[in-house]
Amino acid sequence: MLQGFHWLSANGNWWNTISANASTIQAAGFTMVWFPPVSLSVSKEGYLPTQWYNLSSQYGNQSSLQNAVNALKSRGIKPLADIVINHRCGSTSWADFTNSSFANNNYAICSNDEYFAPGNSGAGISERGAYDTGEGYSAGRDLDHTNTSVQNEIKYWLSWLKNTIGFQGWRYDYVKGYGGAYVGMYNTATSPYFSVGEYWPTNYFDVNNPNNWRQQIMNWIDATGGKSTAFDFVTKPLLAEAFNNNAYWRLRDSDGKPAGTIGWWPAMSVTFLDNHDTGPSPGGGQNHWPFPSYHVAAGYAYILTHPGIPCVYWPHYFDWGSGLQNEIKNMIALRKAKGIKSTSTVSIQVADSSKYAAIIDGKVAVKIGPGSWSPSGSWNLALSGNNYAIWTK
Predict the structure, then answer these.
(1) What count of other Cβ atoms lies within 10 Å of the Cβ of residue 297?
(2) Among 113, 153, 198, 253, which one carries the catalytic annotation?
(3) Which pLDDT tens digit goes with each residue over 352-389?
(4) Whole-model pTM?
(5) Hey, what domains does the chain have and what are their CATH numbers?
(6) Does the annotation count 114 as an active-site position?
(7) Which residue from 322, 325, 300, 320 is spatially nearest to 310, judged by alpha carbons?
């Protein structure tokens, strides 16, 4: 997967940028592209949506969006829409939802939302939805996913994005905000080619207890009925810790498996180094939790040789220079040539203070870190760079 944007992509012309780069994306070997939110939004980045069916956003108009979707699909690439349904903003005020509205807009809002608090617009309104099924989000009105009208409007909208615009899958935003069973419901109704949820346990990551986050993410996937994958928010910090503190041993768990969610349920894990929230954008960006920049190529050597579904961040491929672009492109080609899949087997050979090495499916060997290691037997060095080497047989 390619994340097809970054935090500063809302420049009014981004859909044209995707269209212009469609051939490059195809040549790189990407099979899916994750789009930013497509609807009109209070925030230019799209994460405070108002009118779901109004596709005139800060990324471009509906026509240019359609062109971008078609440019990818004509090249065999699946476009994924960023689905923000935990919360929603009114068209002109707190809760006047239009295009589309709900059967009753007040009942569509969780009863414990800020809208109903004393001093706010909804104070004193008795019509209100059920208690939130997840964590609150104060920037928008938390939608009550137990409400049949909310469920139906979401199903209609997703079906419209699929059947009219041409999207083939979903990236669900902030899925901590509502019960995972509803993602399962919406996927059952729309049959996406691919689905991934952003379950980011944003409490402090304890590097000494990665199984805490690991289990939370597994619980969410289970709650969907196994109908959606989730981002591997555990592999990311463990990889960073390995490079930053010579702690490559952290990449092997107590059972000898990869220590991220790919060690427990690789087929349902989307690995990544950075995204629009965590990483930098050209000229700035959020950069909340960046992967160590000096080790990005080696980080990709890990996720592009390992099981799970790897996701590449747009700036890394398009903005960090031809050298890194070629390294990533060659790794993707190697992954495809050797048939590495989300369910491939990993045999960890060593994980200590200077290196991590593993053999995947018996045909790809990888080493990251400054320490010396090479596989025994008839292997050929295929790719190498700063703090990584990859062999094939």
Answers:
(1) 20
(2) 198
(3) 999 999 999 999 999 999 999 999 999 999 999 999 99
(4) 0.98
(5) 2-344 (3.20.20.80)
(6) no
(7) 300
